[in-house]
Amino acid sequence: MLSPSRVLEGAVKDTMLKYIGLRLVQSVFVLFGLSILIFFIARVVPGDPARAMMGYLATQDQLQAVRVEMHLDKSFPVQYYYWLRGLLHGDLGRSAYTKRPVVTDLVQYIPATLELILFATLISVVLGQAMGILAGYFRNSWFDGVSRLVSYLGIATPSFVIAILLMFFFSQVLHLAPSVGRIPIMMTAPPTVTGFMVLDSLLAGQFSTALVALTHLVLPAFSLAVIHIAQEGRITRSSIAENLGKDYITMHRVHGIRTSRIVFKYLLRPSIIPTVTVMGLDFAFLMSNAFLVELVFMWPGFARYALTTMLNKDLNAMVAVVLVIGLTFAVVNLLVDILITFLDPTVRIQRRGG
Amino acid sequence: MRQERKADFLASLAQRRRTLAKGWYKYSRNPLSVLGLVVLVLIGLAAALAPHITPYPAQAGAYTDFQNAGKPPSFEHFFGTDRIGRDVFTRVVFGYRFSLLLGIVVLGLGVAPGVVLGLIAGYHRGTWVEAVIMRTTDVFLAVPPLVLALAITAMLTPNLLNEMFAIALLWWPWYCRLVFAVSSSLRSQFFVREAELSGASEAHILFREMLPNCLAPILTKMTLDMGIVILLGASLSFIGLGAQPPTPCLGTMVADGAKRLPGEWWGTIFPALAIVIVILAFNLVGDGLRDVFAVEEV
Q1: Are B82 and B64 in contact (CB under 8 A)?
Q2: Across B278-291, average pLDDT
């Protein structure tokens, strides 16, 4: 016999799947629209796109060949149709800048940026939570004041300014960290397995390379993380400060539960949901800020590739990189939505009802 | 009759003054917001009067003086001189002109269409009109604005006008979404129903009945967005896709000065701090307005 809670669980699971399916369909439509938008932007370039790609030394024959290859001689919808057909076959065309298939480029450059972003996320979660917990628990203390100031500054400072300041102080004045690239030129890179330099070095048993790669990673990742440390710190702080005076916390105290347990088990819990939501939104902004940070630190990643191809009017690559960012944004937001449904019972019930 | 109307007018004026005084009281409770406002007024004045108050207005644009290149901060040059001998302080003040101009033009062009579309979508909630408008909005919001702005400016000739155009093109969806959220909840309220039943035109309902109720979040968001737009503009010009040299642009100055780090740090650090200060000031004022209007989330 099914217990009532079982039935409820089954119903919840059912609506969850429906909800996820709906979100998936929506995401596909948004990405479809985005592809039309970016394709349009890439094709309405003033002047001759073939000329823009090939430069001023190309002959008429060469230009004609490019036009035929990219179907630039056809109408806009026909061009889009060919592009879409290619996409379904896993072919995003050839990059005019690197002269290689765009897919090959993406596979090469994405891991470096992913490594940077994941490390930045790690830093922002650890430091943001630590700052938020301390500021919330000791609210209105000097630490709370300092952390408020740091948050205001963190939100108002562009990532490229942070990157330049960090590079200036820590690598140029104090010589504590290297300033550019992933590893020194003299050093042999480990064989590529995951594409993450630190992880690959460890897998290959090159521990000194791993350490050096980590020191290269710290400054750019921290530049990306600052704004998110500020945001997550504020969210955690206000949630903890709000719950600190509530009866259930006093109750736990009276029962003699350790302070550390109260903080980590009972006070931190309500702040998890807003933190996760913000982290999801932040992921796309980490990617866009990486455009600037990778430029400053000469990080050979996806964002730098994206920027270079855009500056060189490399149409195929440009369309692809924008879509990759849109796809990442959609996937991460979907994951966050699903995660929140699991974390938050009220959302679960609302969605079932509605 | 006229007397009465005059009395009405005076009464409403007094009412308004009271609301304003109350708003200012709430705003002034937060010293940081007041500080932000003071800083903004100072920056605004300095930018407006730049040719009159800066020590070397001739050095803002195309100018070279290699005799004085790379001089550290001193009484003659508060922020030092850059690598071709221009006064960095003068260029920072002139740089504020372009930053503020960018923010004003972008919001001026971008907010109105977004608000109108948001009102229309909210009024026609649940119909295909809403679906078309809001799904288009979703597409524009599917990637961070910096990425699309880069793509557009990279395709066009990089200059200040195209930079403004590109950012303005990306700014309406945020207001569309914000206004839609408010107006779609107003849709079912009695005053909107009543206006509808009494035969008011759609334009009247949208702009006279619904719009006034959306103004508080719009105004708050505009203040906060000034900071974001300036940040975005600085990022674009840092990459080299904004106003071209010799225009004194804060982002370009940071990028240009960075080549001379760590030696001539003043060429980078002062323009960078200038960017941070103006964005911070807009954020503080925006936070203050949020308290005054009791806007939850924008």
Answers
A1: no
A2: 90
